[in-house]
Request: fold
Amino acid sequence: MKSAVTLCRVSEAALGPFVFHDELAIGFEKAAAHGFDAVELFLPSPDYVTSGDIRELQKRHQLDIAALGTGAGMVKHGLSLTDGDATVRKNALDFILALVDLGGALGAPAILGSMQGKHGPLVDKPRALQFLAEALAIISARAADHGLVFFYEPLNRYETNLFNRLAPTAAFLEQHGLRHVKLLADLFHMNIEETSLVDSLTENFTAIGHIHFADSNRQAIGFGHTDPLPILQTLQRLDYQGYLSAEILPLPTPDEAAGQFIRSIRLPTI
Ligand code: LER
Ligand code: MN
Reply:
């Protein structure tokens, strides 16, 4: 199974679940030293770095780009696709499309996580879902133009009230014909929301494109109480071809988290 590690350059997310916060050149070097196949980038804005500069780092360190997070649009710029203000929604869409284009130049899908926003007093749930479906239709068409998919990530109840579980999200994507949008299954959120990690991964497998492989406490697997063996066996049995990505807290240190992550994705040979 392919491994990826998160590199975050967003100062507002300094305490977030990202392994390396160094400048990109150093982050790439550390990712390669730990033996990761790819990096997942969390950038402050789409023009923070050019695709040429990223390709240069990829070539130097033999790393793929697994995905590009868009959450800076929320944590840095206060944007969401379901905001009550049409200008904010438009800016959110433009921010995501620019990251989809950057990903397009790198062969990497972008992710919708926190920028899905929430429903509330100004925007009720049906209207929020309508905004979401309209935006996803535009975003997925752009991703498809690049020959890529786009990842939609259900989040736990403390982060969104739109989609918390895989199955309802998959049904929503299907209902709206969003064939180029795949699920991002984050085991940390699933640990809070799903009845069974294995059942949920199995039942929604064909809709899943990417996995944030995190323990119950959002550290590297092995540092919390999630049992990785049935999960890894299930993914192997289903022939999962995507990434297991280390979107985890950098604890006890970034290097120890990275090292534990790499150990945690190996199936024991019995
Ligand atoms: C993003 O991948 C994620 O999992 C969220 O919890 C970030 O807010
Ligand atoms: Mn995640």
